[in-house]
Design goal:
The complex is a heterodimer of chains A (378) and B (383). Chain A is globular and about 65 Å long. In chain A, the strands form 2 sheets. Chain A has a 10-stranded mixed sheet. A two-stranded parallel sheet of chain A has the order 5-7. Chain A is built from 14 helices and 12 strands. In chain A, helix 3 packs across helix 8 and helix 12 packs across helix 14. By secondary structure, chain A is of the alpha/beta class. By secondary structure, chain B is of the alpha/beta class. Chain B is built from 14 helices and 13 strands. In chain B, strand 12, helix 7 and strand 13 form a beta-alpha-beta unit. The radius of gyration of chain B is 22 Å and the shape is globular. The chains are: A alpha/beta (378), B alpha/beta (383). At the A-B interface, helix 2, helix 7 and strand 12 of A face helix 2, helix 7 and strand 13 of B.
Chain lengths: 378, 383
């Protein structure tokens, strides 16, 4: 049994933390979400929703029921118990059916009625921001940055703080309020981030029900590829997002209606993207993309295939990319078993770009190297 | 362009009608939904939500924009134009991207917050009834059954068939569980020549949106598991998760229920539900008891037999007839094993160590051959 104690607030070094003591694997620990004091009223202090969502994968993986002391939203309870938990449990052996017990409420929480989305600088995130401007039926009011697992390594917290600092000028440029949400989820909950990232992002959104009534989760995959890969929660996050809504918070899988390459194509005509597009595994938002990692190869090649790469000279080292074109395209071709790389490869193949023969040689070598690595890891 | 004029409500002898004049392919005709007079007060006449959803697939198939002369709910507009229409157009070739031009409203509507599911008596809705009649969340507990004529009825007199279905539900499961029954009649199918299977996930929600002042939650019983999600243009049940989530308004949430469970698992659970044992009615002949001969009866009886649960359903089916003609029933199922719901029956039989006799296999082969000949003869001849 995973017990989530009564929620309480704690003030630490200019940060306000929404805390819950939990019993995990027989040991007591405290889970928390933190914001700077200026954003105290963003935190939703009277619902366990965020903690339930954060703990859900661990609970399902270990087959432990969840109990909570502070009420959770009735709608969320229904959707998790009746739809989400049975669905993901039926989809593989990773998760086991569990129940969630505790007081329920259908009352709406006090919210400022904000419309928010995360800001990572990636194509999905920027596309959501671009399409939810003042002309949208739901224009954005807030940008968020969550420290719920995406920042890795020993300096993960510095990474979060640096990204938050770098994101502020973009938020100012857009006229949006930036809310940074810190947490100790990555340290406290022993899950592989790719398995659970959708749960984590949703837990962050639920923690901010005090300010948001609508939250847009930028989708990585398009609906045409919907399936249950339990080791990549993004493959079925349309269902996850639908099931994480409450009486007070509407959630959308933003961008799920189109493929990644289409988003990048549309972003090519949006000036802020030329400077801020940041798809890189390394570095922080607002910094130049490294141009060497797998994600850089994929998305820069997409820009190249679209014939718009030069517009992104502030975000990408264009000459360096062109100089290493065979290697970059080889990396994309080698990974086309993954749908997003396949999309990029197809786009380049269909474009005027002539793929050099050396790219195929690189692809073969990358594939061999990846296979060897996998063998070694076995 | 499909033009929709402002909706109006009028009361007739026994029913109240919500109507809007719709101009489709140059013809201006009245589209309508009607309910029993006691539910007339809940018809939503200040917005065109129900009509936009009811005509959406036709508009997209024809590639015609929808122009509304009365408001639609802002949230619905956002979800349709941002998510549903682009996703359908990108994934199914018969559908085209269209625009919706309409004044938008987010004015709150009064709502009774009733909780309903569509009712036919079949396996999927019986499962929804069983799992939601005592939902642990009060706001998600069933209060109403909705019986609708939105394209699924194919009798000579659909209005009287609808009245029969509503009365049967009222005297049957609704009476036993204290649920209300609402019947919605409409002429959507007469105005739009769509294959119902292709548009089912749109038509029933359209009827629900006509009653937004009554319903707060609607359960659309899933015919397929979520794991089979796919954009199949001939059968909207495969991708209903998407339209249902996009039809949500500030008052009304839609769910695809039962999609986490296979049909066989549903039947296995229903076998312990006394109301199902008595009232399960998958048969295509609505006004009769289960005929025991149509495809839906055959596969349901076969499934219950495979699960070892058929005897519990003696009030609903002629179980003796099944046992007397078991080889024919099983041959029928085997001959259609390529179809998912029939194939599942055979898979369960195999799991449980049940074998098919050579005679069943022989008869199935004959049935398959006969079906192939019939199929060939049905094809229009080329001159």
């Amino acid at each position: 049994m995973l017990n989530i104690g009564e929620l309480y607030l704690q003030h630490t070094d200019g940060q306000v933390r929404l805390c819950a003591d939990i019993a995990l694997n027989g040991r007591g620990t405290t889970l928390w979400f933190g914001v700077d004091e200026a954003h105290t009223d963003c935190l939703c202090t009277d619902r366990s929703d965020a903690f339930v969502m954060a703990l859900l994968p661990t609970a399902m993986r270990t087959g432990q029921d969840i109990t909570c002391q502070t009420p959770m939203s009735e709608r969320l309870h229904y959707q998790l118990e009746q739809l989400l938990i049975p669905s993901v449990c039926a989809a593989g052996k990773l998760y086991h059916p569990i129940h969630i017990q505790g007081p329920l409420t259908a009352e709406k929480v006090k919210s400022k009625g904000g419309v928010g989305t995360g800001f990572s600088g990636g194509a999905d995130s920027l596309h959501t921001i671009m399409t939810h401007g003042k002309d949208s039926p739901f224009p954005l009011t807030h940008l968020t940055l969550f420290n719920v697992g995406v920042f890795e390594g020993a300096a993960y917290r510095q990474g979060f703080l640096k990204s938050l600092e770098n994101a502020q000028p973009f938020a100012d440029e857009m006229g949006l309020e930036l809310v940074g949400l810190d947490s100790n989820l990555p340290q406290a909950l022993p899950e592989r981030y790719l398995d659970v990232f959708s749960y984590r992002l949703l837990s962050g959104a639920l923690a901010l029900q005090g300010v948001m009534s609508t939250y847009l989760v930028a989708s990585s995959y398009d609906l045409g590829t919907f399936h249950f890969d339990l080791h990549d929660s993004g493959t079925h996050d349309f269902l996850l997002i639908h099931c994480a809504q409450t009486e007070s918070l509407s959630l959308y899988d933003s961008g799920v209606q189109m493929k990644r390459v289409q988003k990048i194509k549309e972003l090519a005509d949006w000036a802020p993207a030329h400077r801020w597009l940041h798809f890189c595994i390394f570095g922080h938002v607002g910094e130049k993309n490294c141009g060497r990692c797998k994600k850089c190869a994929r998305d820069i090649s997409t820009l190249y295939g679209l014939g718009v790469l030069e517009r992104f000279a502030e975000a990408v080292d264009v000459p360096a990319y062109k100089k290493t074109l065979p290697r970059q395209l080889g990396l994309v071709l080698a990974n086309r078993g993954e749908s997003l790389y396949d999309e990029a490869a197809k786009l380049v193949e269909a474009s005027d770009v002539k793929i050099p023969q050396a790219a195929y040689v690189y692809a073969e070598q990358f594939q061999k190297a990846m296979k060897n690595l996998q063998e070694e890891q076995k | 362009m499909i033009r929709m004029e402002a909706p109006q409500v009028r009361q007739e002898a026994e029913r109240t009608v919500l109507s809007a004049m719709v101009t489709l392919e140059g013809k201006r005709e009245e589209a309508w939904f009607s309910v029993e007079n006691q539910y007339g007060q809940y018809l939503t006449d200040d917005r065109l939500d129900a009509f936009v959803v009811g005509f959406l697939t036709t508009a997209m198939r024809l590639g015609e924009d929808i122009v509304c002369e009365a408001p639609i709910t802002k949230r619905l507009y956002y979800q349709l134009t941002t998510y549903l229409i682009p996703a359908m157009a990108a994934n199914m070739e018969i559908y085209h991207a269209i625009a919706i031009q309409a004044p938008l409203t987010d004015a709150p509507l009064p709502c009774e917050k009733a909780v309903a599911t569509g009712w036919t008596g079949g396996v999927d809705c019986m499962y929804t009834l069983m799992t939601h009649r005592n939902a642990s969340e009060p706001s998600r507990r069933l209060t109403h059954l909705l019986v609708a004529n939105v394209g699924t009825l194919e009798s000579e007199d659909n209005t009287s068939t609808l009245a029969f279905m509503a009365e049967k539900a009222r005297k049957g499961v609704a009476a036993q569980l204290g649920l209300q029954v609402v019947s919605v009649d409409s002429n959507l199918q007469e105005l739009q020549q769509e294959t119902y299977l292709a548009v089912a996930a749109f038509r029933l929600p359209a009827a629900v949106l006509a009653l937004q002042k009554l319903f707060g939650v609607f359960y659309n019983s899933a015919g397929y598991e979520f794991q089979r999600f796919s954009f199949v243009q001939e059968n909207s049940a495969y991708y209903e998760l998407v339209p249902l989530s996009c039809f949500e308004t500030d008052n009304l949430a839609f769910y695809s229920t039962g999609g986490q469970t296979s049909r066989m698992q549903k039947l296995n659970e229903l076998a312990s539900f006394p109301l199902a044992q008595k009232h399960l009615h998958p048969c295509i002949y609505i006004k009769r008891d289960n005929c025991g001969k149509c495809g839906k009866c055959v596969r349901t009886m076969g499934a219950l037999y495979a699960l070892g649960k058929l005897d519990a359903f003696r009030e609903a089916f002629d179980v003796e007839a099944f046992y007397s003609n078991k080889e024919d029933y099983l041959a029928n199922i085997l001959s259609k094993s390529h179809s998912q719901h029939y194939g599942e029956v055979l898979a369960v039989m195999k799991q449980r160590g049940m074998t098919l006799s050579p005679e069943v296999v022989r008869k199935a082969r004959i049935l398959r051959a006969a079906a192939a000949v019939a199929q060939k003869n049905l094809k229009p001849k080329e001159d």
